[in-house]
Amino acid sequence: MSFPQAKLLLAEPRGFCAGVERAIKVVELALASFAAPVYVYHEIVHNGHVVKELKARGAIFVDKLDHEVPNGSIIVFSAHGVSPEVRRTARAKSLRVIDATCPLVTKVHAEAVRFASRGCTILLVGHADHDEVVGTVGEAPDQIVLVQSLDEAETVDVPDPTNVAVITQTTLSMDETERIFDVIRRRFPAARFPSSADICYATHNRQRAVKDIAARADLVLVVGSENSSNSMRLVEVARTLGAEAHLIDDVSQIDSRWLSGARVVGVTAGASAPETLVQEVIGYLRSLGPDEVETVEVVREDVRFGPPPQLPGGVSSTKASKLLEIDL
Fold first, then answer.
1. Sorting pLDDT into bands at 50, 70 and 90, what band is 43?
2. What letter does residue 252 receive in the DSSP assignment?
3. In the listed set 169, 198, 227, which residue is the last one of a domain according to the structure?
């Protein structure tokens, strides 16, 4: 298999966002700073390669605190955030908590608490069972209603249409979310929205970049794991532009049949996918013939989050968010 006349387009930005970099670094610092074992609640980020590497370095990933984590242990909360109930369980077990929640997810939690205190019915636009959504719902379970689609936005029922608020998961499709917002605005004109967008800067930027390459490509390969919401959205966005698009966990999942007849191939990565995996994909594709790789940059990212206060030099999620002028 070869396609020497093909051109490769590499999206920029791609891969790790500031929240993911911070979360991974938190686990690495915890492993270096404290005696084993270090437990991690859920996958620290949604990427199988990252989790496998951290396991090899000694991290123990768990799905429940009750029976899987001994009292008094160190526990790291993942980038996706946790519910108040999980925090209460951690306190009851005297766990030493290191909170790697992305500050942008913390912002959404704070919005949920604020809107709930005003008696609002909160429409949470997101995907059921995603770790981030589960944690957010836990902030006000009796007042939050999940809206997953346009159809649900059209049919959702609320006790008081004049007292509705809207928040979102941070990793959604921008275009699809805006269409859902349009429906909510039409049905509930008095609905309150956050003062700044919930969909995070990294999700926004990666979707903009994939639009640019998908408009020119026959095939788009998105590096990311199947449980990564933002990676799945990149595939969907590319397909809406008419490109064939596939999600691959790594280079081994490339099907040579996808490359047949492709003259322009685009490559990007979800916010939890390591750059090493992207470079392996590029290396494989170049081995088949193409020698031209064009980087398509839509914006340059310079966002950084410091470690949480439980680690040396740490800052709180609230402080990190305020550094970005995010309204909490």
1. very high
2. G
3. 198
pTM as predicted: 0.91
Residue tagged active-site, from 12, 43, 111, 132: 132
Q: How many domains does the chain have?
A: 3
Tell me, yes or no, whether 308 lies in a domain. no
3-class SS of residue 41: strand
Asked if the peptide bond before residue 312 counts as cis, ω within 30 degrees of 0, the response is no
Angle at 63 (CA atoms; ends 112, 170), nearest 5 degrees: 35
207 with 218, same domain? yes
CATH classification at residue 157: 3.40.1010.20
The b-or-e profile of 298-312 (16+ CB within 10 A means b, else e) is: beeeebebbbbebbe
Provide the domain limits for residue 147: 104-198
Q: Is 132 tagged catalytic?
A: yes
Quick one: CA torsion of 117, 121, 124, 127, rounded to 10 degrees?
120
Q: Give the pLDDT confidence score for residue 316 in this predicted structure.
A: 52
Output the CA torsion sign for 178, 153, 232, 168. positive
Strand partners, 247: 222
